[in-house]
Amino acid sequence: MDSYNSPTTKPLFRGTQIVWYIAGLLEVLLAFRFVLKLLGANASAGFTSFIYGITQPLAAPFLSVFKITRVEGSVFEWTTVLALLVYWLIAIAIAKLLVMGKTVSTPEAASKLDDQDK
């Protein structure tokens, strides 16, 4: 059975789609947080408050890693940049892990192993 017709191919494809959708959503929310802080957005405005509230748990593990850079009302939040990078790397790792579950034929596996030895 070739790997294109394997019963595991479609669920793995859907799984990677879900991983990239969630990662994309997190990245967009964190990017909004970064830009709003950088531009000195009014924290009490509805949209700004919503973005800060929803991204606080995502940014919280990184908040004390770096100092915050402030320039006349603007905040360059290095921790949000770190969060963007870490969540992106986690998404890559999960997607790669899912793809590792793909069925491969013996000749295909042998070929891949030979390629790794080079």
Task: Please give the structural blueprint.
Layout: H1 9-38, H2 46-59, E1 69-71, E2 74-76, H3 78-99, H4 106-117
Question: How would you characterize this protein structure?
Answer:
66% of the residues lie in helices and 5% in strands. Helix 1 packs across helix 2 and helix 1 packs antiparallel against helix 3. It starts with 8 loop residues before the first helix and ends with a helix. The protein has one domain. The chain has a two-stranded antiparallel sheet. A hairpin with a 2-residue loop joins strand 1 and strand 2. The longest helix is centred in the N-terminal third of the chain and has 30 residues. It is mainly alpha-helical and 118 residues long.
